[in-house]
């Protein structure tokens, strides 16, 4: 069986940057203890490694670590000047040996001690490499791991220093350790700084602090750092600082307390917190002794995680995890095995690994008869590739609880013969062992589902079952169906490619007792209507709904749907027409209380931004407790009429979009500079759906200033998500995406906050951020 293992490393992404005092010993500080390492020396000297994409595609490439200690450069020896680079900050882990499907396929040709895999953050594919000797392989494996660890453990100042150093090395084209005016000018263009800065030769050469004493017409690293600081002074932060600083130079403890109490809405805890902030973020020891905070320290705090828009106390596990499973939203994946589209896409174990590492707690497996009585997983009746069922289960065992200790639901779409179902059951028992929950927790038929807390470290099988937990029936089941049979029985839309002919013609399906007995708390059943569910349904029965069926039920009987979801789990999935693996809006389903809202995790965009945003809280554990009015079995809540619920208290959200910092360049054309605008979107119940945007700023992605306020009314704050989107304005065509950040309304910190932007893929893009001032008040 295939088991893909990664070196355990911190999952913390590189954090935000702040402009503060930069050491003149920049290079020495950052490279200390690294360049003397023998593994790093091998990487810097360079190695010829075999890049492997498949059994037939294996080509030599020359790899080396550049002087900045972060950039890995590689090229073909026959490619002339052409080359590629990537940063160590893009890497998540290194796998050693045959720990990828590609390297396993060539295991007989290349021994494990020569092979390793570089795993990237987000959805970027892995890089499989083969060294010429075991020693060389170890040098790269251990060296890259050390560099990953270093980047993950940098403090805010070190990250800024490294970022500035990177830019210096990129701009120093002739590698003489200096930058002439032309190199500085070109660098500023790449930094998205507009022409008024790029033509500032006077600032470059004749600033008193920047005097070119050697009259060489160039800047060394220390001068470039100071020059960079001059360009990145934040007037908008300085103005806030001045409002509370009596002498304009520092914030005394009482002044910082006042700022925290008045602007950051911290109340009584502001006194203690002010002391903690000075100790943590103030770079000057002199200021610390005075119990004061300088402008550098103030900006460092505002740019930190404590100064971010997301409440720090909601980042860790903070919710009650002892309630029934039906009381939680559960991060869920559709056709998890696919990396691409639904018709021709590749099936891969990597897709399961990526989903589980994102906190996904419900994965799907479509099982079909394979050769030699070995079941396979793929999208039936399509050209998608096949992987072995046993390899999927082995991967699940290895990765199920890396990101979260709470239960994983394994949703089985079963198309196998009885004989191969027995093989599936055998693999599940043998590979998962005690991880698989096969018995009732207390030996009693439950009246409500067990909690995530009770099921920690357990895998639940969701599939058809012969009879119920109360009794056993014969082996022919006539009323229990698999997930997408709802399409055949209930939907008017075109039949999904997930429906086999056997399902559509309504014939009885055979089920093996061995597989059936493994299903305990998630028995897949046909949905017979809300009235039937109220009088006959069991808490362990779960039905699946296509997106169109779910929306139809929501429109016809919204309150009934919410009530149903207080007692039982329901799963929704994308329309069979979404062959491109696009997604539906999950917010529509969450507003009904649906727990398992399955999305195509491989497809980036608005829908996955919302999913990532909702599950960013509570320790990213994949479970988020539903609001209390969606856990009460007698609830009268209707998403279409939020004002009729008990305890209705609408809120006003006011967002002053102040400025942006170092927004990434999206158009790589020479001389192109972004024209950024900010759009704020509210996603929630129908009355809360809204969006508004700022004007665009011409030719400034480096430090645009808007100072525009956007106002919203939130009727159901408990279900609302807020999405910040930055785009490059284009009057002639569609705006280009720059970055976004999405979070639950209930996780917003009011006051002056930074929003650290994410790429379309959901990965951090430091130091890009927005600076905002947020006010939340009751609607009067």
Q: Would you mind describing this structure in some detail?
A:
The chain has about 775 residues and is α+β, with helices and mostly antiparallel strands. It has four domains: about 40-155, Pleckstrin-homology domain (PH domain)/Phosphotyrosine-binding domain (PTB) (PH-domain like, Roll), CATH 2.30.29.30; about 235-305, EF-hand (Recoverin, domain 1, Orthogonal Bundle), CATH 1.10.238; about 325-470 and about 510-630, Phosphatidylinositol (PI) phosphodiesterase (TIM Barrel), CATH 3.20.20.190; about 645-780, Immunoglobulin-like, CATH 2.60.40.150. The strands form seven sheets. It has an eleven-stranded mixed beta sheet with strand order 15-14-13-16-17-20-21-22-23-12-24. Helix 23 links the parallel strand 22 and strand 23 (about 595-600). The longest helix is centred in the last third of the chain and has 21 residues, at about 545-565. It starts with about 25 loop residues before the first helix and ends with a strand. The model is unreliable at about 1-30, about 195-200, about 210-215 and about 470-505 (pLDDT under 50). It is an enzyme of class 3 (hydrolase). Its cofactor is Ca(2+). It is a peripheral membrane protein. GO terms for molecular function: calcium ion binding; phosphatidylinositol-4,5-bisphosphate phospholipase C activity. It is found in: Cytoplasm; Endoplasmic reticulum; Membrane; Nucleus.
CATH names the topology of the largest domain as TIM Barrel
Residues in helix, %: 25-40%
- Structural domains: how many: 4
CATH homologous superfamily descriptor of the largest domain? Phosphatidylinositol (PI) phosphodiesterase
Low-confidence stretches: 1-28, 197-202, 208-213, 472-507
Q: Rg to the nearest angstrom?
A: 28 Å
- Under the CATH scheme, which architecture of the largest domain would be assigned? Alpha-Beta Barrel
Mean pLDDT: 86
Main sheet properties: 11 strands, mixed
CATH class of the largest domain: Alpha Beta
Distance between the termini: 62 Å
């Amino acid at each position: 069986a295939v088991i893909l293992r990664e070196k355990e490393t911190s999952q913390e992404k590189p954090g935000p940057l702040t402009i503060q005092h930069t050491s003149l010993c920049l290079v020495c500080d950052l490279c200390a203890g690294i360049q003397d390492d023998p593994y790093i020396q091998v990487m810097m000297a360079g190695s010829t490694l075999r890049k492997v994409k498949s059994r037939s595609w294996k080509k030599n490439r020359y790899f080396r670590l550049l002087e900045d200690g972060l950039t890995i450069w590689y090229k073909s020896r026959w490619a002339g000047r052409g080359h590629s680079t990537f940063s160590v900050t893009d890497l998540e882990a290194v796998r050693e040996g045959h720990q990828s499907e590609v390297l396993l396929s060539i295991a007989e040709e290349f021994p494990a001690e020569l092979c390793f895999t570089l795993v990237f953050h987000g959805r970027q594919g892995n890089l499989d490499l083969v060294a010429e000797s075991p020693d060389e392989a170890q040098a790269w494996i251990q060296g890259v791991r050390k560099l990953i660890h270093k980047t993950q453990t940098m403090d805010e100042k070190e990250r800024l220093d490294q970022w500035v150093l990177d830019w210096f090395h990129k701009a120093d084209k002739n590698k003489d350790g200096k930058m002439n005016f032309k190199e500085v000018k070109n660098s500023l263009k790449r930094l998205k700084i507009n022409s008024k800065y790029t033509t500032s030769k006077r600032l470059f050469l004749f600033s008193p602090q920047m005097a070119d004493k050697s009259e060489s017409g160039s800047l060394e690293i220390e001068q470039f750092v100071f020059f960079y600081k001059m360009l990145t002074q934040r007037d908008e932060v300085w103005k806030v600082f001045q409002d509370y600083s009596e002498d304009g130079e520092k914030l005394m403890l009482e002044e910082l307390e006042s700022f925290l109490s008045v602007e950051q809405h911290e109340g009584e805890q502001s006194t203690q917190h002010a002391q903690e902030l000075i100790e943590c973020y103030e770079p000057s020891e002199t200021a610390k002794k005075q119990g004061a905070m300088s402008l550098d320290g103030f900006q460092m705090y505002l740019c930190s995680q404590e100064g971010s828009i997301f409440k720090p106390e909601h980042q860790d596990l903070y919710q009650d995890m002892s309630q029934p499973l039906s009381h939680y939203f559960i991060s869920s994946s559709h056709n998890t095995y696919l990396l691409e589209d639904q018709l021709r896409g590749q099936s891969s174990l990597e897709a399961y690994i990526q989903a589980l590492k994102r906190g996904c707690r419900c994965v799907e497996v479509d099982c079909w008869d394979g050769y030699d009585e070995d079941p396979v997983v793929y999208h039936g009746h399509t050209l998608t590739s096949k992987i072995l069922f046993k390899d999927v289960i082995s991967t699940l065992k290895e990765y199920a609880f890396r990101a979260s200790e709470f239960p994983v639901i394994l949703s089985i779409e079963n198309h196998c013969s009885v004989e191969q179902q027995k093989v599936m059951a055998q693999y599940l028992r043998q590979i998962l062992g005690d991880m698989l929950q096969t018995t009732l927790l207390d030996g009693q038929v439950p009246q409500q589902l067990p909690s995530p807390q009770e099921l920690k470290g357990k895998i639940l099988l969701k599939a058809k079952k012969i009879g119920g937990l109360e009794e056993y029936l014969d082996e022919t089941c006539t009323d229990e169906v698999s997930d997408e049979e709802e399409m055949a029985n209930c939907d008017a839309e075109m039949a999904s490619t997930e429906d086999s002919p056997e399902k559509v013609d309504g014939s009885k399906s055979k089920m093996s007792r061995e597989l059936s007995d493994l299903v305990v708390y998630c028995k897949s059943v046909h949905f017979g209507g809300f009235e039937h569910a109220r009088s006959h349904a069991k808490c362990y029965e779960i039905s699946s709904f296509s997106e169109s069926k779910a929306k139809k039920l929501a429109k016809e009987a919204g309150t009934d749907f919410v009530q149903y979801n207080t007692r039982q789990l329901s799963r929704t999935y994308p329309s069979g027409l979404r062959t491109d693996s696009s997604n539906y809006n999950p917010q529509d389903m969450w507003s009904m209380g649906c727990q398992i809202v399955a999305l195509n995790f491989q497809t980036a965009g608005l829908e996955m931004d919302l999913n990532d945003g909702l599950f960013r809280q509570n320790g990213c554990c994949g479970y988020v407790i539903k609001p209390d009015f969606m856990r009460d079995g007698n609830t009268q809540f209707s998403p279409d009429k939020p004002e009729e619920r008990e305890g209705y208290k609408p809120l006003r959200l006011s967002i002053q979009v102040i400025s942006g910092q170092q927004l990434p360049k999206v158009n790589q054309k020479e001389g192109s500079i972004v024209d950024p605008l900010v759009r704020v979107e509210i996603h929630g119940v129908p009355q809360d759906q809204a969006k508004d945007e700022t004007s665009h700023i011409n030719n400034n992605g480096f430090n645009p200033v808007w100072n525009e306020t956007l106002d919203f009314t939130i009727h159901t704050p408990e279900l609302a998500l807020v999405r910040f989107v930055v785009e490059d304005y284009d009057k002639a065509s569609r705006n280009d995406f720059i970055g976004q950040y999405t979070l639950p309304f209930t996780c917003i910190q009011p006051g002056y906050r930074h929003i650290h932007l994410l790429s379309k893929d959901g990965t951090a893009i430091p130091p890009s951020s927005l600076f905002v001032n947020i006010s939340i008040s009751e609607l009067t």
